[in-house]
Every structure is written in C-alpha cells, then in structure tokens.
Amino acid sequence: MKQTVTTRMLFISILLLLSLTAAACGTKENVNNSTASAGGEQQNQSDSATNTNTGETVGTEGSTNADSNGANQPSNTDGGQSNSDGEEAAAEKQITIKAYFTDAELLELQEQERQIAYPSGDAVAMLKAAYASLQLDGTNQEVSLWKTIELLDLKISEGTVTLDVHIPDEARLGAPGEMMAIEALTKTMFQFDAVSNIELLVDGKQVESLMGHETLEHPIVKP
Fold it and tell me: Is this entry keyworded Signal (predicted)?
C-alpha cells in the first residue's frame, strides 16, 4: 500500500515537471515570436522610411534635372537669332557697271565703267552702290548730274525700284540738264535684270516734274 502511494506521487511529480517544462518552452517560443514580429515590423517601418526618403531624393533630382535642362534650352528672347556662321558678314561681290555723266557743257551723256562692291545677294545694296557711282564725277572731267542729290531711301519689290531723293536748290538744272539727269539715272538702273520700273519720289512724294521742267512718269518703265 505504501509503495503504491509513493509510486503514484512520483508519477504525479513527473507529470507536473513535464507540464512546467512545456509551459516554459511555450512562453519562450511566444517571447521569441513576439520579438521576431516586433523586429519585422520595425524593419518594415525602416524599409518604408528608406523607400520614402529614396522617393523624395529621386523627385528632387528630377526637379533639379528639369530645371537644369530648362536652363540649357535656347532662349527665344531674340526671336531666334542666327548662329555664329549666320552672323558672319556675307561675302562681298564686285561687279563692273556702266554709269552715265555729262560733259562740262551739258551737251551730251558720257558713259563710263565703274567698279561697285556690295554684299552678295543684296539687291538693295547693289542699287545703292550704283546710285553712289552716279554721284562721282567722271575720270575725264565728266560731270555728275546727281552729285548733290541726296538718296533718302531705296527699295525694290517685284521689279520696281523706288528711289526717294532730296534735291537741294543748287542741284536743280535747266530743262536740258533735267532730261539728261533722268536719262543718266534710268540707263544706270535699267542695266540690272532685277529692275523693270523706277518710281522716283522727291521727299517721299510723287511730283509732276523732277526739277520743274519735264513731266516725270510714275513709274518710269524699262524700254
């Protein structure tokens, strides 16, 4: 009987020990799981924060790149200026033309060859240079009929060249001189293929006569 009680108590002690051991293991496992869970959440939060910061950095760099790229874009303030090659002066062209003068007695026109220079392809500059050649006296004592007549403006459009001049009193001639002056101008200008008509203005206005003697056509048509 006594042996049976002792055996039963031993068995109960073993069961109790096993229960305590199992409980201790369960608690430790729960603690480990809780720790692991907390560590995972902390890691996730850290990763999220890192991703967030990384996103902000990329966004900032994107803005910086956009600003930088925008700053490198060509400016439109000057209407699209030409490049350095386009800004170089056009090549100068030299040609030989015929210019017309009168003799000292104003009896007849005299023809002479003159060299003029102008930017290649610039018809206005070419015609201005031709007019300037009329303002110089000839090489053999020929007299310029346009020496003191100031060219205010010159334009060309669709074959019509418009010359606006100012005539001072000392440049006004008699009827024969007026006729020769107009002839000298027309012969000089009409030698250019680009010129079909001449519209001659005085101080910006059409006038009936250049110097008060001969009727002035508007425009003067190339023969």
Answer: yes
Q: Does the pLDDT value for residue 76 go beyond 80? A: no
Burial pattern 120-155, b for ≥16 Cβ within 10 A else e, equals eeeeebbbbbbbebbeeebeeebbbbbeebebeebe
Question: Before 119, cis peptide (omega within 30)?
Answer: no
Domain boundaries, the chain: 1-66, 90-221
pLDDT at 17: 66
> How far from chain centre, in Å, is Cα 3?
116
Residue 61, class by beta-carbon neighbours within 10 Å (0-12 exposed, 13-18 middle, 19+ buried)?
Answer: exposed
Closest CA to 167 of 198, 189, 121, 135: 135
Kindly state the greatest CA–CA separation across the chain. 175
pTM for this structure? 0.60
**In terms of Cα–Cα distance, which of 169, 118, 111 is closest to 140?**
111
